[in-house]
Description:
Helix 3 (59-89) packs across helix 4, helix 3 packs across helix 5 and helix 4 packs across helix 5 (150-170). The protein has five helices and no strands. The two termini are 29 Å apart. The protein is mostly helical and 174 residues long. The chain has helices spanning 19-25, 28-55, 59-89, 110-132, 150-170.
Amino acid sequence: MIPHRATAAEPWPGWVTSRAAQGAYGEHLVRVCELIPALLYGQVMDRKDLAVAHEQGDRDQVLSAVGLQAMEYRDELLETAVVLDVLALCHPPGGYLPRPYIEEPSGPDKADELRTDASAVASDLASYDLRHGMSRTGDIPPALQDGCTESERDALRAYARREWRAREERHGRP
């Protein structure tokens, strides 16, 4: 059996990305898709280590683990924002859920919910970067507020994409 070679069009065997995702991320899309299992696994392992230290009453280890998570927060915001953005781009175009969202019995449209989540995490990234001066690209859009527009949400997702490309290029990735 020939091993699968990840491409922007097919990062995993059988999973074909949309043209929108390919257009937004280009060759960086392969790296974004590699983050999906890494983020999920990393989150579980971080919590496991924290839970073990807590159960053992090891206050120093708990504080160390929390400190490490705080230091990695910006990277995790960026990585999560782009993963959610790619997943949202793989759905048909659509809108966002209103802010504030009021739960409906039928539940939200899943694609709209995914786009909304992508913009919400990108908003957290922009807020963090504004507070800590961490932007690599500048021109940080304002964080989301109640009643925000779709163009404000789109601007935040575009900001996360720019930050992602800048980080990847800084690390020598095409």
